[in-house]
Structure formats: structure tokens, C-alpha cells
Please model this.
Amino acid sequence: MTEITGQSGPPADACGTSLASRISEPAALSFRTCVPPSAQMKFLLLAGLVIALNFWQFRPLVNSWLHDPNWGHGFIIPLFSLYLVYQRWNELLAAPRRVCGWGLLVLVAGLLAMVLGFHPIGTMWICQLSMTVVAFGLVLYLTGPRMAALTWLPIFYLALAMPVPEMLYRRVANPLQELAAQASGLLLGLFGAQIDVSASHLTVTSLSGQVYPLDVIEACSGVRSLLAYLALGVAWAYLEPRPIWQRVVLVVSAVPIAILCNVLRVTVTGWMYVIDRPEMGQEFMHWFMGMVMLGPAVLMFLLLGWLLGNLFVEEADAPQATKEAAS
Model:
């Protein structure tokens, strides 16, 4: 007699995959399956309408990025916003979606801010900021609170690419000019340089006795690096999962890091005059030192991120660590 042996476990299909394993494996998420065509069409129509209403703002915004050195980083900001969206793509596809009436109110508020910013206020900055409010309102209205919670940062991060008004820029630049002059004068004095400081004006006496009057002008105030490093700090804070307080520390730290790097740049520039090499402290070299300071800034962000991640351990992790050690 021939013994017939039964096969244990759930039956397998023709491809050798058991029914149980097919049920346990989550289905791959795709944009086409998660977002129905009707919702896609509705979003495209409303987004196209919003873009059409704000299209007149794009040209002056891009011109500022091209021709104003203070805002050259503006081209990078939208790219990083897209990267933030890409990072959470699976969460976005899996998030529950529903129409939220509050989003319509936010959308209308953004459009109203655009109109008021154009007239009677007459400030392009408000008009440009209103684009982020309109975009957030559109997402909240069409997809609901969960989706808005996942996309608020990439949307409002775009505000860092929008040039602030000249009056506000100068109110920030003037005290930073004086701070850079005072701090760099102190550092140069520690290295034996003969230097007098008055407000944002430096009088440097070189090793040969030549006197050089220097001014920390608006372009050397550090506002440019402050804005760029602030954008870098926000990006650094959200690249990795961190507690909220650590993210706040990383973002706020962009201010002292930017100030310190600018003081170092002004100090190095002033030292060129101390050693009778004034050509090394002008034009290209001064711009080049600003680029070089990006290296120390990144190192300081790295060091601060490492300290926050390794020296400050969440208490909630302690019981879990004890349990794992006991097992």
C-alpha cells in the first residue's frame, strides 16, 4: 500500500505562497490606489486656481533669489520642502483623508492677506507669505487635519525663501553690525592687534604702522548667514526623529551659530589689514570667507545634534533598556 501523507499548514497557491503569509504581508501603498481619480482632479483644479491667483508673485520672488545675494539660498528651500514631503510619503499615503471646513477658512484668510498685503499695506512680503497660508488651507480643506499635520512643516518652510522688507532687514542688520565690530575688535585685541572700535567702525593699525579705517557694512552684518543658517537649523531639526524640545534647541541655535561665524569672518578680514595684506580682506576674499564659514557652522550643528542625542536620553527609554538587559 502507498501511504498518502498530508501537508500541514495552510495551503499554498500556484506560486508557492501560503494564504496566511499573503494575509500577513501589508499591501504596498501607491498614490493611484490611495487617492481616487476624483480627488486627484479636485486637488489639481483647486491647486491650479491658487497658482494662477499667485502667479504674478513668482517673477519678483525669483528675481530676488537671482540678484539679491542675501536671498541666494531661496532656490534650495523649495527643493528641501519637497524632500521633507518625500521623507513622509508612505505616511501621507496611509493618512486618513476627509474634507475639513476649517481649511476653507484658512484658505480665505490667506487670500484676504494677499489682497491686503498688496493694497493698502503695500508689502510684497505679506503677499508672498500668504501663499504658504493658502497652500496649507488647501491641504487642510481637501485632506483633513491628519494630512495637514504631516505637511505643515514643508509648506511653512517655504517662508524662509521669501525676502523680508528692507525696513525690517535694516532693523535686524544694524545691531548685528555693531555686535560683529565689537566682538571682532575684542578678538583682534587679544591677538595683539592695535584697534579702536566705535559702533560699527574699526580703526586698525597694521604691524607696519599703517592705519586702516574699516566699516562693518550692512552686507557684513551677518543677516545673510543668519537667514541661511536658520533654514539649515530647521532642516537639521527635522531630518531625524527627535523630541520637540531638541528640535527647538537646534532651530534656536542657528542664531548664535550665525553670529559666531560672522564674527570669525570679520575677525579674519580685519587680520588681513593687521598684517598689511588689505587686498586679502576685500571683495572676493571677503565673499570666500563667508562661504568657508559654512564648514564650521555645519560642524557646530553636528556637534550639537550629537550632544542632544547622546547626553540627553529620554526617561521613557530606561525601563525598556532595563527589560532588554534582564532578558
